[in-house]
Specification:
heterodimer, A: alpha+beta, 2 helices, B: about 475 residues, alpha+beta, 17 helices
């Protein structure tokens, strides 16, 4: 099976590629990669859920907002993602994302070692081919 | 594009195509070699294309690849016909450095280093994942955003002198809390007094060498082995969200600009537009938050030192500099003084003697400048010069500058071994994780000694003292 995501060298920041058969799967794997930068994601238990509903004009903006929301929930509630339970992306005149995330609270003793300052548009790419979607993101850390 | 060497420590890339100004790079041959290896020079050239940029797109000796703008750059934009760009300031608005001078010696502190570090680590959490000691309600947070660290002084978390010894007295007067989103406020309200992670740290250091005795004395740095505390952090999630919010707002407002720029992170709002004003006021408020954060950390540091060394210990703020900010400043361009938004992203203001913007007690010397090294290496105190006004819009470098990616650092080193190695040099670390230690390994950074040497020889920030670490707290 192909990797869900992998990390690449970037002088100051954290760069990854996330893969999926569909846009949804690649978005979900981008969220997992984002969390994996900050903590050992394999240790996070799925004990609580968060729902998100995000609308944006472009795919890139939708991805940016989605990943930023992950950072927001960590800063405000200490929520750490373990897995993406459900994800739907709808394209009408805009893009609409509905997602259910599972995870746990950082204060329970998880080691959060790297805070991501922000999602960036630097080198952001979303490539959609049939059955193969690749997302590239650079986070500022 | 090959930079042309014009003297020992500066290079120029001539204006070609649609560039509005040339690029000027302060570097030695060794540092230039580092720069050519990443994309920072290309980024410096991109910045030279922005509307209303004056003089040069400037790159400091510690410049390295950022997003949109390089890190270690200065861009001075005309306040009338230019622009303001959140990417030219950075996500961590008013990330900066504060230095506290103590009345303790290296020997005093080394004897008690472990209990001291334990206490500091408890009192100053990294704050990643929502853990902090101070929680503000909405009204208090708005007060902080508007008034900066004077809030902390009122509450007893510091003295009036702390504010006087701060760039801008710790206050950007144009701050408007109403221009900051609820989301940004939510992220920030529990984060005062926290360091954050990445390259942010608090370091206990001692004076290793005094290089300019007279200036050092004015700065309160009186003798070899005197202990100082360096605090490096910024505006945490609040500042990051402000930057993100306004990049998005500008991108939606100006699709025609987005289509023309090579990287979305270069997005800007034209001077005189409503968005330019809104962003500037929000940035000022986030800057006030960052100064308050460093004030709270100062307070916590004092508590820890008192706990270990008793009430007689003194920790005075030498100065507090900002290295991610845009300031409205007047500079001479083509023989005329004009109003500019001087964007400093990974660059430190370096005003010289006689400048009205700097505290009275530093009028004769010029402003203090702090250039932290990487974990385990030297840091430096420098002093501003009037030559920096001619050369670099009153600015110099801000740090060592990364050389290797964090990913590469993790592959290359082992956190445990690094910790042991530093301990053998009597440098002790308390960190949230071994991975964090690895990412910030000293060799992942450029040579800070070389960075400050270039600043000194180019006369944009002169050397005053060399500091060496004895203890580090990091997120």
């Amino acid at each position: 099976m192909k990797k869900k995501y992998e990390f690449f060298d970037h002088t100051a920041d954290a760069k990854f590629k996330a893969y999926g058969k569909t846009l949804e799967e690649a978005f979900a794997n981008s969220a997992l990669a984002t969390t994996a930068i900050m903590t050992d994601i394999t240790k996070i238990k799925p004990v609580t859920i968060r729902n998100m509903h995000i609308e944006a004009k472009t795919k890139e903006a939708l991805l940016y907002d989605f990943l930023e929301e992950i950072l927001y929930y960590l800063d405000t509630e200490g929520f750490l993602l373990s897995n993406v339970k459900e994800i739907h992306i709808l394209k009408t005149e805009k893009y609409v994302l509905d997602v259910i995330l599972e995870g746990d609270y950082a204060e329970k003793g998880y080691d959060v070692n790297t805070a991501i300052k922000a999602v960036t548009y630097n080198d952001m790419k979303i490539e959609e081919k049939e059955n193969e979607v690749t997302i590239q993101v650079v986070h500022d850390i | 594009m090959i930079p042309k060497k014009i003297n020992k420590y500066s290079y120029i890339i001539d204006k070609t195509g649609n560039m509005n100004v040339p690029v000027k790079i302060f570097a030695s041959e060794k540092l230039m070699k580092n720069m050519i290896e990443d994309r920072c020079i290309e980024q410096g050239i991109n910045v030279a294309h922005l509307p209303g940029i004056k003089g040069y797109s400037i790159m400091m000796p510690d410049a390295h690849q950022g997003y949109g703008f390089s890190i270690g750059g200065v861009a001075a934009m005309d306040c009338e016909h230019g622009c303001i760009s959140p990417g030219g300031i950075g996500f961590d608005i008013n990330c900066g450095v504060r230095l506290l001078v103590t009345n303790l010696t290296k020997q005093d502190v080394q004897q008690r280093i472990h209990p001291l570090l334990n206490s500091l680590f408890k009192n100053i959490p990294p704050g990643v994942g929502g853990k902090s000691l101070f929680k503000l309600d909405e009204k208090e947070l708005d007060y902080v955003l508007k008034n900066g660290p004077s809030w902390a002084i009122k509450k007893g978390y510091g003295t009036k002198e702390d504010l006087e010894n701060c760039e801008n007295n710790g206050l950007m007067k144009d701050a408007n809390p109403a221009k900051i989103s609820i989301k940004a406020k939510e992220r920030g309200k529990n984060q005062l007094g926290t360091l954050g992670s990445g390259n942010h740290f608090l370091e206990i250091q001692y004076v290793h060498k005094i290089l300019d005795e007279k200036t050092a004395k004015t700065f309160g740095v009186i003798e070899k082995d005197q202990v100082v505390v360096l605090i490096h952090c910024g505006s945490r999630g609040l500042g990051h969200q402000v930057c993100s919010d306004y990049i998005r707002a500008m991108e939606e407002e100006y699709p025609d600009i987005v289509s023309k720029i090579p990287d979305k992170n270069l997005i800007y709002a034209p001077a005189k537009s409503k968005l330019a004003k809104d962003y500037y006021e929000a940035m000022c408020a986030a800057a006030n938050f960052a100064w308050t954060n460093r004030q709270m950390i100062t307070h916590q540091t004092r508590q820890s030192f008192k706990e270990i060394f008793g009430e007689r210990v003194k920790l005075d703020v030498l100065y507090d500099v900002s290295h991610n900010i845009a300031k409205k400043e007047k500079h001479e361009v083509d023989g005329k003084k004009i109003n500019l938004w001087v964007h400093r992203k990974g660059a430190t203001r370096a005003f010289g003697p006689g400048n009205k913007e700097i505290p009275k007690k530093y009028q004769k010397t010029g402003q203090p400048i702090f250039i932290p090294g990487s974990m385990g290496t030297s840091s430096y105190i420098l002093v501003g010069t009037n030559n920096s006004m001619i050369e670099s819009f009153g600015s110099t470098a801000h740090g060592a500058g990364r050389l290797l990616s964090r990913h590469a650092a993790i592959q290359k080193w082992n956190g445990k071994d690094l910790k042991k190695q530093l301990e053998s040099e009597k440098i002790y670390i308390r960190a949230a994780s071994l991975k964090g230690i690895c990412e910030e390994a000293p060799l992942a950074y450029k040579d800070v000694d070389e960075v400050v040497r270039v600043s000194d020889e180019a006369n944009i920030g002169k050397l005053v003292a060399q500091l060496k670490p004895i203890g580090v707290i990091k997120g």
